[in-house]
Specification:
Blueprint lengths: L2 E7 L2 H13 L5 E3 L9 H6 L1 E6 L3 H12 L12
Antiparallel strand pairs: 1-3, 2-3
């Protein structure tokens, strides 16, 4: 398995949201942060939290992330709603 960073979130909360959104779309994702195992949470703000997916599903993840970056907060959300 080879992991690829699909998105870097500004906060741990955003990273969890993105991971869950990917999971809801059927794409497994994991998070990577350099916050000293939670002892230095302020590093999330400066370094961000990486959302990683297996390279085999990177294209699917990119589609989901495209929706997120356009402002969708749910998979299949209509633009007019």
């Amino acid at each position: 398995m080879s992991l690829k960073v699909i998105y870097t979130a500004q906060t741990g909360t955003e990273a969890i949201f993105v991971r869950n959104m990917l999971k809801d779309a059927g794409v497994e994702a994991s998070l990577r942060t350099d916050d000293a195992n939670g002892n230095l949470p302020f590093l999330d703000a400066s370094e961000g939290v990486d959302v990683l997916v297996d390279e085999s599903v990177a294209e699917d993840a990119a589609t989901v992330m495209g929706e997120y970056e356009r402002g969708a907060t749910a998979i299949g959300e209509d633009e007019g709603e």
